[in-house]
Amino acid sequence: MKQKFPENFLWGASSSAFQIEGGWDEDGKGKTVADFNSFKRSDKQADTKVASDFYHHWKEDIAMMKELGMQIYRFSLSWARIVPDGDGDINAAGIDFYNKVIDELIANGIQPFVTLYHFDLPYALVEKYNGWECRNCAFAFERYARVCFKEFGDRVKYWQVINEQNLMIRVNERMNIYVDDLWEADRIRAQMDYHMFLGHALAVNSCHELVEGGKVGPAVSSTCTYPLTNKPEDVWAAKMNDWLKTNYCLEMHINGEYPGYYMRYLRERNIVPKMEPEDVAILKSAKIDYIALNYYRTLCASYLPASEEHPIGERVYRDNEVDFDQYGYCRNEKNANLSASEYGAQIDPMGLRIVLNEYYRRYHLPMIITENGLGMADVLTEDGKVHDSYRIDYIRSHIQACANAIEDGVELIGYSPWSVMDLLSSHQGFRKRYGFIYVDRDDFDVKQLRRIKKDSFYWYKHVIETNGEEL
Ligand code: BG6
Q: Is the CB of residue 312 less than 8 Å from the CB of residue 327?
């Protein structure tokens, strides 16, 4: 099938530091929240210690990225590798590692597309400040961001500040929130979220100050929720799910203030965060250049009225389908029109076209897809191959959706799916794989960590070679 993409469209693939690097305590790196969280789960799945061992394989891995034809590589820097305790001394070995990676990428014709922070807050900041709950964390982040812009900004022009703040903030363990009281957890979460917005704005302004020609933006987890029926209440529940999970975040980044519906939500819960008067100028002055968006699936929702049994604000987990996280009104439903992956994600390429159109019409900013992919338990066959036709089907249909969105007039500048190679899935370790390159290890046996090109590798290489014309 022939599709048309602009001449300068950026094709790439993605990863993040704690999921790919390994080398978790090498050369002065500090521990991160991700290190601790995955240790807690390590009786069930792999931890961050070795991951895909990019820390020791980066040269050969970049050679494979070149072979794949990647024009951009979207990856994150580990804050704790660069500033081990979060806001103290700079670790020269960390700077050196990323300089080598960036130089090698450029030498191979691949543009580095860098995220400053992807789920891996330095653990020392948890001990010192309780992480983002304290305002100081925003300024520690600004300092770290400025180090990165000064050290790498001569070669790195595209920056994403925080990966999926809007999703991260809902996952207690990633934020190190371990309190039993649900209201208290929500209060802490709202305060942390606000400080992350402040840190984000400080970093955006620093990028514009320090990186000549630098472009900077957030990477959001996109949300597209369909109503279960055309009952107005179901439509409202679906909209609320999108607004309170993603749109409020984009609106804060773009307008420098929370939208009314979000303030109402915070007030109703009595969890309005503490904000300082001087923050207004910071938040309002930070102008993002583009939106990076991660898209995997769509959601479906029905309205669930609050009742004595399910009062507003109370989360009830007695039934997995009930989600009281938002306003107390939204129930997650299965969409009977969609098939789901073996891990439950409802596969929906049309949803991607919808999201791209919605965000572009609403925010009028260029966009790039920085994550999109299918996590499966791939099998290495006896002849040493991985036949992942299901992944090819998934990515093909989503690239088609991108082409349609571009024809609809959306300014989409690139596509960088998840992930360049198998890496530590944030929920299912090495059982669930996303890569174009198979990494031969299991959760508990790291074996030789051989790299093996999957069928999808050869297919995607051809897609890039033909600029998406031949899918
Ligand atoms: C995104 C994250 O939300 O989803 C990635 O940015 C993550 O870090 C990806 O790996 C897929 O989720 P999972 O849990 O299947 O690894």
A: yes
pTM of the model: 0.95
pLDDT exceeds cutoff 80 at 316: no
For residue 333, the model assigns a pLDDT of 87
Q: In percent, how much of the chain has pLDDT > 90?
A: 80
Task: Please compute, for residue 267, the number of CA atoms within 13 A of its CA located in the half-sphere on the CB side.
Answer: 7
Is 308 designated active site? no
Q: Is 294 in the pocket of ligand 1 (CB under 6 A)?
A: yes
Averaged pLDDT, 278-307? 93
Query: 14, 41, 418, 422: which to mutate for ligand 1, most atoms within 8 A of CB?
Result: 418
Is the minimum distance from the CB of 298 to ligand 1 under 6 angstroms?
Answer: no
As a whole number of angstroms, the distance between CA 116 and CA 148 comes to 8
Over residues 458-468, the pLDDT tens digits come to 999 999 999 99
- For residue 16 and ligand 1, the question of a CB distance below 6 A is answered with yes
Atom of ligand 1 nearest to the CA of 119: 8
Residue 371 appears among annotated catalytic residues = yes
Matching residue, tokens 């790498």 = 152
- d(CA 155, CA 153) in angstroms, rounded, equals 5
Least confident of 15-24, 163-172, 352-361, 458-467: 163-172
Amino acid at 223: T
Give the residue-averaged pLDDT of 277-299: 97
Express the helix, strand and coil content of the chain in percent, nearest 5 each. 40, 15, 40
H helices of 153-181, where? 165-168, 172-175
The answer to whether 366 touches 293, Cβ cutoff 8 Å, is: no
Domains of the chain: 10-301+335-465 (3.20.20.80)
